[in-house]
Amino acid sequence: MEVKKRTSQGMTVLLLFGAVIFGMVLAGGLSLTVPSLGLAEDDDAVGSRVAAHAQSSIASFADLAEAVLPAVVSVQATTIEVVDDRDGGRDLFERFFQQRRPGGRSEPREFRQDGGGSGFVISEDGWIVTNYHVIEGATKVVVRFDDGDELEAEVKGHDAATDIAVLKMEGSGFPYLELGDSEALRVGDWVMAIGNPHGLSHSVTVGVVSAKGRDGTGLVERSFENFIQTDAAINRGNSGGPIVDTSGRVVGIATAMNFGAENIGFAVPVTTLEDVLPDLRSDGKVTRGYLGVNIRDIEPREVRGFRGLESSDGALVLRVMDDTPADKAGLRQGDVVLEVDGRKVGTTDDLIGYVSRQRPGTKVELEVLRSGRQIQKTVTLEERDQLAALEPEEDEVDENELEWLGLQYQDLTQEIRSMAGIPRSLDGVLVTDLLPSSPLYDEGVRPGDVLAEVNGSEILNSDDFERVIADTESGDFLRFYYVRSTRQGQAANFAIVEVP
């Protein structure tokens, strides 16, 4: 009996211990306690930061949705075109049954296209923000509020380069959202998207900031790509709707989704909206300063390829367009822009953003690193416009190969220029073949590209090319400037490799 009693007591203790552990797990899972995240007892700084975050978090996403929804609108954009069929644009069946005027003339017909998206009110007097692609070409725009009220809105301004448009409703006293700070967002922060996906008005989704500064998407003009990536669901119809932080302030404009994946959406940061908003409200368009260069960031591993460069800060000039402000000021490909008007240029976004905010006619001072020396250039900005197309059109075929580069190349001839669309103004050697194991292949060079410079030295022919490379030693870095000709024009970049 004594043994049985002890066993019973032991089981009771075990059950009580298990209940305590289960209760702790359950409470933690329901966020009833602040998880320790494995913090050490003496880690006061990190611990206080977690506690502060827990205290500042909203009580419920429902509270956030309730506060934000009244200022979010569904946008219906209608485009009506009048088409005169006398040009034979309709098919035979349509023309046969089409009404005709007396005398046998075709009756012009109206064609209607309805589209839609989302938007949000940003002021008490009825200004609305949406995407440009939501209202592009619209002849009538109607917005609908969460309570069912519908109002007509007028397109007051748009900017295709950033995919932003502003609308205006008549009246006052509208609920509106405040603009937040997208720069302060951190990867992992909670955000909420509100919009009109697939016609399901005022839908709410929640996720986190997956990444910042996304580019290369092709969604807007390349110079202005700087998207917030989020896993808050964004679908067709969400375009133009707000992305808000946990305080209910707008930090982004839902713009697109990745069709090839789930939960990858992109939003224009609110800082971009703040840059263009004054011009859109006052002038209906954005007037930007323009340099006339193609630039990119410098990778940390490339720093040693630029004499005198101490870090990866700066904007590397890939190409200078003919007859542009940069060309007139004497900028060259291979220059690294370190400062603009005394402001450090950390990335290309710093230079693009600053120049774009200046008015045409403004003079800006650039500090440039060229061949190991820092020089000053004064550039008078012009208005940003479409890049002028370069003309195509003239030397001998002499195929060579450098073993360690895994490269075959030849001089440019008039025939090659004509066939490949290589402009007469571009000199260099043509890459005719490239091994997959070539270090240049890893840097993006492909057959058909023209190697125009090596370490800042202009290449006119194969002799120049071989002489520059022959002067290098093991451990040196070679900086190849290459240009690729396409139907859309010329694209340029740098390939930086180490001599084995």
How many whole angstroms does the radius of gyration measure? Answer: 30 Å
CATH architecture classification name of the largest domain: Beta Barrel
How many strand segments? 27
Tell me which oligomeric state these chains represent.
Answer: single chain
Counting structural domains, the number is 3
Q: Give the overall silhouette.
A: elongated
- Helix and strand content put the structural class at alpha+beta
Percentage of residues in strands: 25-35%
Q: Biggest β-sheet: count, sense, barrel?
A: 7 strands, antiparallel
Q: So what's the CATH class of the largest domain?
A: Mainly Beta
What does this entry look like structurally?
The protein has 500 residues and is an alpha+beta fold. The chain has three domains: 62-286, Thrombin, subunit H (Beta Barrel); 289-383, PDZ domain (Pdz3 Domain, Roll), CATH 2.30.42; 400-498, Pdz3 Domain, CATH 2.30.42.10. The chain has eleven helices and 27 strands. The protein has helices at 2-29, 44-56, 61-68, 92-97, 132-135, 270-282, 325-329, 348-356, 414-420, 439-442, 462-470; strands at residues 72-83, 109-121, 127-130, 140-144, 150-159, 164-168, 190-195, 203-214, 227-230, 242-244, 250-257, 265-269, 289-290, 293-296, 315-320, 336-340, 343-344, 363-370, 373-380, 382-383, 400-402, 407-411, 429-434, 450-454, 457-458, 477-486, 489-498. The strands form five sheets. Strands 21, 22, 23, 24, 25, 26 and 27 form a seven-stranded antiparallel β-sheet that branches. The longest helix has 28 residues, at 2-29. It is elongated.
